[in-house]
Amino acid sequence: RTTPPVAVVARIVERAIVVVAVATRKGGKHNSHSVCRTAICRQ
Fold it and tell me: Cα(7)–Cα(13) distance, rounded to whole angstroms?
């Protein structure tokens, strides 16, 4: 509980971006790519 919730959310977001990036490379879907862009913009 020492770690702030913001750091935890940031880690989850980073993992999500990595997963989306891998999925985008494998599938090449534009939808997942746009989601990755929005996630980065939100940060």
Answer: 10
- The C-alpha atoms of residue 11 and residue 42 are separated, in whole angstroms, by 14
Give the pTM.
0.43
DSSP per residue over 4-27, as a string?
-HHHHHHHHHHHHHHHHHHHHHHH
DSSP conformation class of 38: H
Give the integer Cα–Cα distance in Å for 5 and 28.
Answer: 33
Q: Which residue ranges make up each domain of the chain?
A: 5-42
- Contact assessment for residue 38 and residue 13, using Cβ atoms and an 8 Å cutoff: no
- What confidence tens digit (pLDDT) does each residue in 1-43 have? 677 889 899 999 999 988 888 877 765 555 545 555 555 555 4
